[in-house]
Amino acid sequence: MAVSSTVPLATREDLSLAYTPGVALVCEAIAEKPELVHKYTWVGHTVAVVTDGSAVLGLGNIGPKAALPVMEGKAILFKGFGGVDAVPICLDTQDTEEIIRIVKALAPGFGGINLEDISAPRCFEIEQRLIEELDIPVFHDDQHGTAVVVLAALKNAALVLERKLGDLKVVISGAGAAGVAVSKILLAAGIGDVVVADSRGIIHSGREDLTSVKAALAEVTNRGGLIGGIGDALDGADVLIGVSGGTIDEEFVSKMAPGAMVFALANPTPEVHPSVASRYAAIVATGRSDFPNQINNVLAFPGIFRGALDAGATRITEGMKLAAANAIAEVVAGELRPDAIVPSPLDPRVAPAVSAAVAAAAISEHVTR
After folding, report:
1. Among 292, 248, 295, 293, which Cα is nearest to 267's?
2. What confidence score (pLDDT) does residue 165 get?
């Protein structure tokens, strides 16, 4: 990564415009009308990529310094795919209140906040508090980026198999950041039933060991009142979405309904290896680039932030996320095959389609500046 100027610095006149005395005029204008910061500074096209290093990829709690390469990588994806400038910020604290305080203090210099690789359940409170207390978009990509792309993939998979979303029973393995967000967006999209399982089994309202987040999830999922483990959940299920990092026995997968769909998204080791999943499922997806149907967040976050910034959005709504998922799905709607249900991460059509859909949704929902 590098930072480069967008204006020349070759003459005295250049310096007088870019810095003193010209810069003072811009400062005075913004002091009088703070909203001008979006026009005359980088705020209108720049986001902060913020982590505490507590849940980095599949590596776990490796700390802020070791997390920096991932944040730098995220920043170049923002720029390369969405034309959004991004700055990696790795915080040397994992205290919820301190993270919120620091991000709020940093916010005036950015047009949006992309939270990254912060462990559950702290990530839920951090994101929600920042959404409530800031007037710029805040987005935890591990939750919502994953959820948006999963929904896009599932919509297209259902089209390929001539299934209706409302008829599907979906099982989600994992109740962390991604599992909770995927559950919510699938329900919002009209999925028939969602059953979520964590390391202790199916989440249901009768369990006494649930966090507040999981208890809330129990209220809106598992309409059939299932109990037991992941094997019990998968018996007759139409879709498995793995966001847990664990391993699911082949025996359990074999009990899924005919024409099933398996999205085993743990990286680098899927919950069910594609060679095993394909024995029982009509469509298989992973998070890896060396297998077909890669579910990759880069399909979502560059376009989502580009659209939010272009529209002057003050937050990212559920409607904007649904619009992003629909846009991703529609990019390849005329090219669908069982091994091609989502666009390639390198498809140049994706980010413009997503940004346009998100901007339109922001404007229609009146969440713009």
Report:
1. 295
2. 95
Q: What's the pLDDT tens digit per position in 229-283?
A: 999 999 999 999 999 878 999 999 999 999 999 999 988 889 999 999 999 999 9
Q: What secondary structure letter does DSSP report for 246?
A: S
What is this structure's pTM?
0.93
How many Cα atoms sit within 13 Å of 178 on the Cβ side? 29
Q: Are 357 and 300 in contact, with CB atoms under 8 Å apart?
A: no
Strand residue runs (E) in the chain: 46-51, 85-90, 112-115, 138-140, 169-173, 193-198, 201-202, 239-242, 260-264, 281-286
- Distance separating alpha carbons of residues 203 and 181, to the nearest angstrom: 15
- How many whole angstroms separate alpha carbon 353 and alpha carbon 360? 11
Residues of the chain with pLDDT under 50: none
Residue 140: both structure tokens together = 């935890």
DSSP assignment of 312-356, as one string?
TBSS--HHHHHHHHHHHHHHTGGG-BTTBSS--TT-TTHHHHHHH
C-alpha 24: how far from chain center: 39
Which two three-digit tokens encode residue 54?
Answer: 């507590």
Catalytically annotated residue among 39, 74, 164, 184: 74
Ramachandran angles phi, psi of 241, nearest 5°: -120, 115
β-strand partners of 140: 115
What is the C-alpha separation between 244 and 55, in angstroms, rounded?
12
> Residue 52 has what DSSP assignment?
-
Tell me if 222 sits within 8 A of 194, measured CB to CB: yes
Phi, psi for 49 (deg, rounded to 5) = -100, 105
Residue 121 tokens read as 């359940």
Tokens of 172: 């989600």
Catalytic residue list contains 214: no
Residue 19 annotated as catalytic: yes
Question: In whole angstroms, what is the distance from residue 333 CA to residue 327 CA?
Answer: 10
Of the residues 19, 33, 65, 164, which is catalytic?
A: 19
Write the pLDDT tens digit of every residue in 345-359. Answer: 899 999 999 999 999
Shortest CA distance to 316 belongs to which of 190, 140, 151, 150? 140
Ramachandran area for residue 290 (φ above 0: left; ψ -120 to 50: alpha; else beta):
alpha
Q: What is the pLDDT of residue 244?
A: 86
Region for 232 from its dihedrals, namely left if φ exceeds 0, alpha if ψ lies in -120 to 50, beta otherwise: alpha
